[in-house]
Amino acid sequence: MNHPNRSLPTAKEEFLTLFLAHQRALYAIILAMVPNASDADDLVQRVSLVLWQKFDTFEAGTSFLAWATQVARFEVLSFRREKATGHVFNDALVNLIADRAQRFSETEDHRLTFLRACMQELGERERQMLTMRYGEDLRPRQIAERRKESLDAIYKILARTHQALLHCIRRKAALAAEEHA
Q1: Cα–Cα distance between 117 and 121 in angstroms, integer?
Q2: Model pTM score
Q3: Which of 57, 72, 103 marks a domain boundary?
Q4: Fewer Cβ within 10 Å of end Cβ, the chain: N or C?
Q5: Tens of pLDDT along 54-105?
Q6: What is the rounded distance in angstroms from the CA atom of residue 80 to the CA atom of residue 97?
Q7: Do 128 and 41 belong together in one domain?
Q8: Would 60 be classed as within a structural domain?
Q9: Which residue range is the domain that position 170 belongs to?
Q10: What are all long-range contacts of 162-167, with beta carbons under 8 Å and residues at least 24 apart?
Q11: CB-based burial of residue 5 (10 Å sphere; 0-12 exposed, 13-18 middle, 19+ buried)?
Q12: pLDDT tens-place string over residues 16-28
């Protein structure tokens, strides 16, 4: 596929970067619109091909996931018409799910941005704890052993850190909402 405004290697790289960054969210959105994972797997393949074929219509700087969700919605509706056997969901419900999934995914994109910014506001100790807990998938007991601290202290630090992140994310979300109002 030749993309008129992009050189082919650049278009491939740009598409792959965007698609891989949003593939899991797109799969979740598609899975919400169909009754089983097998159909979702088939549709993700189908949607990825259509996304590549239509990539020249994607406006750089806009939400790739929003664009991909629109393509997925039409592919799901087409898929349902092809199957045309007793569907669990009607087309109106599929559209409603797609709309809500798209809004949710856009909100989640913002929350991830806020989370990254809030992580930078944490102290080094708190960031290390979160890295051990979620990056290395260590249990609090393992963290306590590694850091030679009490298990109770680790639980308290993690709880305070979670609260601080939640408060920070909510504050940033409220500020962003005020700016867009």
Answers
A1: 7
A2: 0.47
A3: 103
A4: C
A5: 999 998 888 888 899 889 988 988 887 777 654 445 556 556 666 666 555 5
A6: 15
A7: no
A8: yes
A9: 122-181
A10: 164/118, 164/122, 164/126, 165/115, 165/118, 165/119, 165/122
A11: exposed
A12: 999 998 898 888 8
According to DSSP, residue 56 is labeled G
Neighbours of 107 (CB within 10 A): 11
Give the total number of structural domains in the chain.
2
Are both 74 and 147 inside the same structural domain?
no
Specify if 112 maps to a domain. Answer: no
Residue with tokens 């298990």: 151
Closest by Cα among 49, 56, 53, 54 to 3: 56
177 and 96 fall within a common domain = no
- Report the alpha-carbon distance of residue 37 to residue 63 in Å, rounded: 25
Q: Which letter does DSSP use for residue 138 in this model?
A: -
Query: Please, what's the b/e burial string for 49-75 (b: 16 or more CB within 10 A of its CB; e: otherwise)?
Result: ebbbeebeebeeeebbbebbbebbbeb
Could you read off the pLDDT of 155-177 as tens digits, one per residue?
Answer: 999 999 999 988 998 898 888 87
Separation of alpha carbons 181 and 177, rounded Å: 6
Q: Is residue 114 part of a domain?
A: no
